[in-house]
Write a structure and sequence with these properties.
With about 400 residues, this protein is an alpha/beta fold. Helix 3 crosses helix 10 and helix 4 packs parallel to helix 5. It contains 14 helices and 17 strands. It folds into two domains: about 130 residues, Aspartate Aminotransferase, domain 1; about 240 residues, Aspartate Aminotransferase, domain 2 (3-Layer(aba) Sandwich). The chain has a seven-stranded mixed beta sheet, with helices on both faces. The chain has a four-stranded antiparallel beta sheet with strand order 13-14-17-16, covered by helices on one side. About 45% of the residues are buried.
């Protein structure tokens, strides 16, 4: 392995936190990741040395902030292998990104009777916007089922596709089960009927490299706070010709070419989709987190996370009454589970007393958990700064909980 996890942990100051008298064991990375010191320093430096509004000022700070913001766009484009930085739109996060696409691409290209396909494992952010859209436009929402292992049923997916399909919108990696979907095949089959494809990459980009051109997806969305960066910043990638055909999402300053009472003309992408003052510091911090990641050996990080996943799966499977939900072979480093006789919220509460942070609830995937017949799960999600020793602490604490609630 070409990295030292002890050294990496020292780069994330929050990991030294004490919860009461217990050291923090942070296993809630699917909800949000922690931030390395150099990303925190970039945020501090921006507000201390660069803070100004962008694009419209000619003074020194405005020009400095504008260049940093647009350099961030270039670095994001390189990170996901977009053809040009003009295919990168900054938004508040994955949720806003999906709503942007629904209200621009959807309103322009999807009519009454047309069909949109999503899957059972989608986050609510990739369900509710399409429900709202279909209710307003008379479009039809169809859903890909999942198997007992949590994998998409690809035969059923193919049977849903038709000449009426205009968009397929699916998660790249499930936030609830960790399952990595066969998105390359999903895209090829959708394009075969002329449909466009949106991928929700919120749980993917922090774990493994993403090449949007190689995937050939039409849209890709993700959030900075799950990529070791700031909250309130995210990205919409879209193929440029497609973006150029879409109307604005919001009206306001900086997205226009000319305004008059007779009519308004809009900027070319991506400016057309970035009305008002954006989250400048967030975009700059996002680029800093990307630089941090790309300094690492990402293949080694991925291998290490996979080792953590295998170790956690083995350790937790030995606990009597514990059931892992989502058992597919191809997963990001995340384990969702239930414990017989114990509600997941009680599990999370007792774990917190030992300094162990996990997530409990439906994880904004209520239809998926309904599919498995459970109202909630506990979820332990790992990043490359976690350790086997932390998994041992989790397993020991869960064993005590099993005895406590037996």
């Amino acid at each position: 392995m070409s990295f030292d996890v002890t050294k990496i942990r020292e780069e994330f100051p929050i990991l030294a936190t004490q919860v009461g008298k217990k050291p923090l064991v942070y296993l809630d990375n699917a909800a949000t990741t922690q931030k390395p010191q150099e990303v925190i320093d970039v945020l501090d430096s921006y507000y201390s040395e660069t803070n100004a509004n962008i694009h419209r000022g000619v003074h020194h700070l405005a020009e400095k902030a504008t260049e940093a913001y647009e350099q961030s766009r270039r670095e994001v484009a390189q990170f996901i292998h977009a053809a040009t930085e003009d295919e990168v739109i900054f938004v508040r996060g994955t949720t806003e990104g999906i709503n942007l696409i629904a209200n621009t691409f959807g309103n322009k290209f999807i009519e009454a009777g047309d069909e949109i396909i999503i899957s059972t494992m989608e986050h609510h952010a990739n369900i509710v916007p399409w429900q709202l859209f279909c209710e307003a436009r008379g479009a039809v929402l169809k859903v890909i089922p999942v198997s007992d292992a949590g994998e998409l049923e690809m035969d059923s997916y193919e049977s849903l596709l038709s000449e009426r399909t205009k968009l397929v919108s699916v998660v790249h990696a499930s936030n609830s089960l960790g399952i990595i979907n066969p998105v390359k095949s999903i895209i090829e089959k959708a394009h075969g009927v002329g449909a466009k494809v949106l991928l929700d990459g919120a749980q993917a980009v922090g774990h493994f490299p993403v090449d949007v051109q190689e995937l050939d997806c039409d849209f890709y969305v993700f959030s900075g706070h799950k990529l070791f960066s700031a909250t309130g910043i995210g990205v919409v990638y879209g193929k440029y010709d497609l973006l150029d055909s879409m109307p604005p999402y919001q009206g306001g300053g900086d997205m226009i070419s000319r305004v008059s009472f007779e009519g308004t003309t809009y900027k070319a992408p991506p400016g057309r989709f970035e009305a008002g003052t954006p989250h400048i510091s967030g975009a700059i911090a996002l680029a800093a987190s990307i630089r941090y990641l790309e300094k690492q050996d990402r293949a080694a990080l991925l291998d290490y996370e996979h080792e953590l996943l295998e170790y956690a799966t083995e350790s937790l499977s030995e606990i009597e009454g514990l059931k892992i939900i989502g058992t597919a072979a191809k997963k990001v480093s995340l384990v969702s589970f239930t414990m017989e006789g114990t509600h997941p919220h009680d599990v999370a509460t007792v774990l917190d007393a030992d300094g162990i942070a996990v997530r409990a609830g439906h994880h904004c995937t209520q239809p998926l958990l309904q599919r498995f017949g459970v109202p909630a799960t506990a979820r332990a999600s790992f990043a490359f700064y976690n350790t086997r020793e932390e998994i041992d602490k989790l397993a020991q604490a869960l064993t005590k909980i099993q005895v406590l609630f037996a």
